[in-house]
Structure formats: structure tokens, C-alpha cells
Design brief:
This protein has helices spanning 9-23, 31-53, 57-62, 67-95. The chain is mainly alpha-helical. The protein has one domain. Helix 2 packs across helix 4 (67-95). The protein is elongated and about 80 Å long. The two termini are 49 Å apart.
Length: 97
């Protein structure tokens, strides 16, 4: 009768298997996604400062109308378009499930 209540090895090993499968899962976001997010945060903070304090930090750092300022603005715009594409792709994949 004592053997009926003894813990089994399966219960001890199950937790370890769950942890090991989580370690091998791929991240949901790629490096490009993180870069786009960083650029959007920079652009959002810059526009927030323009709206609240009338200070354009990108133009302050790189000079108003300089080529580098325009490059930063273009990169933020491209990051926004990429994020729109990614969001539409994610919404489409959730509908097809």
C-alpha cells in the first residue's frame, strides 16, 4: 500500500522539460523590429518635445536643415512604415488561425 502514494519521477522531470523548451524558443521580434521600435521612440520623444516645449532635439543636435537631421527624419519615417507593415502582417496572421 505504501507504493501507491510514492511520488513518481515523471512529476519531477516535467518541470525541467518545460524550462528547457522555453530556452530554445525564438524571440518574437527580430533585430530589425527592435531597431524600428528604437527609431519610433526617438521620433515620438522628439515630437513630444516639439509639442510641449517647442524644442526639436534632432535639429538641436545635428543642426537645423542639415543632411544628418534629414537622414534621422527619413529613418524615423521608414521605421513607421515598417511598423505599419509589420502590424498588418501580424493582424493578417491572427485572422487566418
Amino acid at each position: 500500500m505504501a507504493t501507491m502514494n510514492a511520488p513518481t519521477m515523471d512529476r519531477r522531470v516535467t518541470g525541467e522539460r518545460r524550462v528547457s523548451t522555453r530556452l530554445h524558443q525564438r524571440s518574437a521580434m527580430s533585430a530589425l523590429d527592435y531597431l524600428a521600435m528604437a527609431l519610433l521612440i526617438i521620433g515620438g520623444l522628439n515630437w513630444g518635445m516639439v509639442g510641449l516645449f517647442d524644442v526639436d532635439m534632432v535639429a538641436t543636435l545635428f543642426g537645423p536643415g542639415s543632411a544628418l537631421t534629414r537622414v534621422v527624419y527619413v529613418l524615423v519615417g521608414v521605421a513607421a512604415l515598417y511598423s505599419v507593415y509589420t502590424t498588418a502582417k501580424m493582424a493578417g496572421s491572427k485572422r487566418s488561425r
